Amino acid sequence: MFTYGKKKLWFQEVESNSINSRGVLNIINSNLYELEFSYWKLCFAMAKTTVSRDISDISLLFDALGNFFQLGFLVYSNNDVFTLNKRHFSNLRDFTRTSRTGEVAQGITYLLAQEYLRFNSVVDFEGYINSRGGIIPAKSSTPDFIMQNHNLNFNVGLIESKGSYPEKSDPVKSSLKKALKQCHSGQNLLTNFDPRYTITNKYGVHIKFEDELSSQSSVGYLADPQSLPVRDERNLSIIRYHYASWFMLMGDQDNAFRLATNEPLKIDDAFFRNKNEYYYYGRRSNSVFPIFDIFWTGFQIAIPRAIIELLMGDILEAPSYDSIDTLQVIQYIDGVRLIKLQF
């Protein structure tokens, strides 16, 4: 059962032009990036992608909580490389396998977007558009995430993740082609909704999961047809939606809704601790759903004061943070910390 230690997953870079050609897929860098993460870091990433679909839907908190119980059994523990547990995975129904690998692929892609691609804010594409009053037409093909870096303008990236497993070994080439097509469709939807947006990057990701009996290791593929940023107009809506899901997970639903609907935050200074530098909420709140706080996970979510000031409009640029992944402290590059509490 995977709950301790870390897993690794290598990503390879694919030449985007070869995806649409008749020839073989061209791998231009077979050692692009090694993504390493702990069980908890991936769990919270998966939880955040789930909650980001609709900040107003509290039931998604319970869907996200299910990942904490499922992930440990899904992953083979006696291997440094991210590997599926064949016995557990084989006992799942076909549709459940597809769903689980898709959720895990999204969580891993979220970490890749932050730690390798260096996008601070990564949010659900449809959830974000809906929160801004946009309408996604029925049967539209959209990417998983819209992403923004620390510059906080209308230059954004889109990314779509795909996953496959040994019994469903989708061709990487066709999978990436579908992913980039969804990004292209998302670009049209986004720019029609608000012409100020410029899509600087469209990423397709395919993660080929293997189990412990496979002759090959799990591997990720990344395709990136690039374009250039052209706008510098300030845009806080994405970063506000990004942190809204963190506020939901820490139990502060009121401020989560305020961020998602572009209303001013209501911050109580009594919730700042650790030399007044971090905002903690769950343990001291009267929230009905602080389910990701210490009782369930043993971690407490903390948001830096500098981020709170940014969300309140008191500072103009998003601070930069390093990634940390230890037994006691996990930190994402958006500055949010998960602090392990001692009993």
* Beta-strand residue fraction: 15-25%
* Whole-number count of domains: 2
Structural class determined from secondary elements: alpha+beta
Task: Let me know the largest β-sheet.
Answer: 7 strands, mixed
- Name the overall outline: globular
Explain what this protein looks like in three dimensions.
This protein is of the alpha+beta class and about 350 residues long. The protein has 2 domains: about 5-225, no CATH class; about 235-340, no CATH class. It has helices at about 15-20, 40-50, 60-75, 85-90, 95-115, 125-130, 170-195, 235-250, 255-260, 295, 305-310; strands at about 5-15, 25-40, 120-125, 145-150, 155-165, 200-210, 220-225, 270-275, 280, 300-305, 325, 330, 335-340. The strands form 2 sheets. It has a 7-stranded mixed β-sheet. It has a 6-stranded antiparallel β-sheet with strand order 8-9-10-13-12-11. Helix 2 runs antiparallel to helix 3 (about 60-75), helix 2 (about 40-50) packs across helix 5 and helix 8 (about 235-250) packs antiparallel against helix 9. The protein starts with 5 loop residues before the first strand and ends with a strand. Residues about 285-290 have low confidence and may be disordered.
